[in-house]
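Q: Structure tokens for this one, please.
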Amino acid sequence: MGLSQVEVDPYWAALAAKGMLLTNFHAITHPSQPNYWCQVAGDYFSETNNNVDLNVTTVVDLLENKGVPWKGYMEDYPGNCFDGVADGVYRRKHNPFISFDSIRLNQTRCAKIVNARELESDLRDFRDLPLYSYYTPNMQNDGHDTGTEFAGIWATTFFEEYYSKFPNGTLFVFTWDESNYHVGTNQIWTFLIGSMITPGTSDHTYFDHYSLLKTVESNWDLGSLGRNDDADVNLFNFGEIPTSSSRDSRLLLVFGPHTMWIGLGLLAGLSMLIAVTVLVFNSNARAKVGTMCGKKKDYVHAMNEEDSSVSAENEQSIDLETTSDSQSS
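A: Here is the predicted structure, written as tokens:
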């Protein structure tokens, strides 16, 4: 499944028309998992293998330092800080938070990675709904094991069921993890939906996964991790954020179809529709548009095919905190 397949799919087209399509959005590397790390840690630390453990800071450190509540909603996640490779249609490689020692080995933080079924109950009481939420569909709903149409139907159903339940001011971000392994520039489909977004519009600015991280940091004035989020990265332009209490605006990031080998961003296809992330924007907060880097980064790296059968014995524990500066670009 590739970008062209998603563009002509009626379900995805209709959903994107409800908001703004980012026509020049790119993933960072291959395979899929490192792109998730880029979203929450600003780098993939030259790691392209699945299911490694990383000892580095993440956006969670920045969020908690500013008192911004967060949660990761993972479909079919068994809970209890499960760090195995797979469980049914759940995959660790599509759960970015579990890879980081500072989250996985911290009981309080790890408890914020939950089975996606909790989203329904959290929406009944906004006191339980975090400002920053990250949602990852399972291997069927993200299109990885099913395809573009199946994932499009899932995403449409998800949106119709949940959108009206979120507070006014919530921004939905639908994105992929990567694009086709073999062709193209790793361009992926990404679109934004929310009360601050004009439906049926598009933005041709160059964005990538670092743009999402940088936008989150800018919205809550979090500072940066000092990696690729510290560069001249373009920020999303949401327009005016409706005036409301800080609990009334959020961001939902949705990762979708991981088209088996043709990923578009964090939605697996465009390699895969992988996750939904919900971010909540503070009262009167406005995302600023940054300046694009003067030179393009090399987004083509050595690629390793994903192996869903990778065993726990192949997992690695890597201490990168002291070397992250030399590895960041």
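A few notes: Residues 14 and 156 are 9 Å apart (CA to CA). The two ends are 30 Å apart (CA to CA).
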